[in-house]
Amino acid sequence: MEKKGILIVLSGFSGAGKGTVVKRLLQKYDEYALSISMTTRAPRPGEKDGVEYFFTTREKFEEIIVRNGLIEYALYCGNYYGTPREYVEEKLSAGKNVILEIEIQGALKIKEKFPESLLIFVTPPSVMELKRRLEGRGTEEPEVIARRLARAAEESEGINAYDYIVVNDDLEVCVDEVHRLVDEARRAPVRSQEFIGKIREELKGFAKGADS
Amino acid sequence: MEKKGILIVLSGFSGAGKGTVVKRLLQKYDEYALSISMTTRAPRPGEKDGVEYFFTTREKFEEIIVRNGLIEYALYCGNYYGTPREYVEEKLSAGKNVILEIEIQGALKIKEKFPESLLIFVTPPSVMELKRRLEGRGTEEPEVIARRLARAAEESEGINAYDYIVVNDDLEVCVDEVHRLVDEARRAPVRSQEFIGKIREELKGFAKGADS
């Protein structure tokens, strides 16, 4: 009911296809924008600044932390990862739904700071299918696949913190479902505070008027 | 993702048209069932047993309380009101979404006992419109209307406890929206515990297998 965009956190098991879901969502619907994280880790071969990440130095990253320029950040394996505030706030104000593709720790931090954010967890229809997709890439050693599945087992403990689970079986169905969930999310009180406030005020006005 | 029906609590201001919404929902979609409350108050002229309420005696009502036959009950102005358990459980098991048209106190009790229930609050688009509808009935004294608006002001304080607010401006739009919200509600973790449990178990199985 309000015009501000919704802050969406999209997480999911490695192999759930969340990157593809995000890409298709941006392509198919106008009202989304993708937030790009900032990191101090070195770019891998083929990674471009401003595409996979904004790459920066530790010194600059810490400067940005100090001036409150990130809405969340974390230190993983000696490298910082964070979400730049300016882009997110600008897009939300312009009515775009901003997508953060981050992991559960980041997701929980976002929910704490922004209770009106929407947390969506993308999962394949079954674990067999997840394994098949990881193996199907054909590029990974069995140990890497085993590690990813072990990691997924850990991540699965956090699913209850999400607002919704979406099954990515058919891509188009999944994308449309995410879109519908975002749309319906506007009907939750936490995202309708302006409307609720207005109704309350007007009702109090009438109740007062009736007293006198 | 599970086949059990969803327990839906529908509340809303007097004049929001929730009765009409429920009637149309039952008419339009097969998968809903309406729970009829039980009360010890006397039937008003025109009210029929099993339509507006199940009318019963205080003695029988208390017997039903004792044998845990109600999923919630309350005492208002010396009369009991409650929701019979059997009908609700039977219909939910059969995959029907069961609608309870009750007030906020009852709604909160239901949510406490059944965290997977879905609480929907129906509101007119504005307070002006609410006032217009109450006056439009043409049968009420100004004092009655003023009392209803004062009551609505009180009720509006509880809206945040609901999962969703639906605006009843155009009836068909409103009914379809309720239907969509109920459908999407299945994607919330609280209503997907079977699916989540299965994924977790399977992932643990694979993680174990990889260890050995």
Characterise this structure.
Two copies of one chain form a homodimer. The first copy, chain A, has 212 residues and is an alpha/beta fold. In chain A, 46% of the residues lie in helices and 19% in strands. The first copy, chain A, contains eight helices and nine strands. The first copy, chain A, has helices at residues 18-28, 58-66, 85-93, 104-113, 127-136, 142-155, 171-185, 193-211; strands at residues 7-12, 32-34, 38-39, 54-55, 70-76, 79-84, 97-100, 118-123, 164-167. The first copy, chain A, has a five-stranded parallel beta sheet with strand order 2-7-1-8-9, sandwiched between helices. A four-stranded mixed beta sheet of chain A has the order 4-3-6-5. In chain A, helix 1 (18-28) crosses helix 7 (171-185) and helix 5 packs antiparallel against helix 6. The first copy, chain A, is globular. At the A-B interface, helix 5, helix 6, strand 9, helix 7 and helix 8 of A face helix 5, helix 6, strand 9, helix 7 and helix 8 of B.
Mean pLDDT of chain A: 92
The SSE order of chain A reads EHEEEHEEHEHEHHEHH
- Strand neighbour order, sheet with most strands of chain A: 2-7-1-8-9
The most extensive interface between chains reads: A-B, 42 and 42 residues
Helix content class of chain A: 40-55%
Strand content of chain A: 15-25%
State the distance separating the first and last CA atoms of chain A: 33 Å
Number of DSSP helical runs of chain A? 8
Q: Which descriptor suits the 3D outline of chain A?
A: globular
**What oligomeric state do the depicted chains represent?**
homodimer
**What kind of sheet is the major sheet of chain A?**
5 strands, parallel
Low-confidence stretches of chain A: none
Alpha-carbon Rg of chain A, integer = 20 Å
| Count of extended strands of chain A | 9
Look at the helices and sheets of chain A and give the structural class: alpha/beta
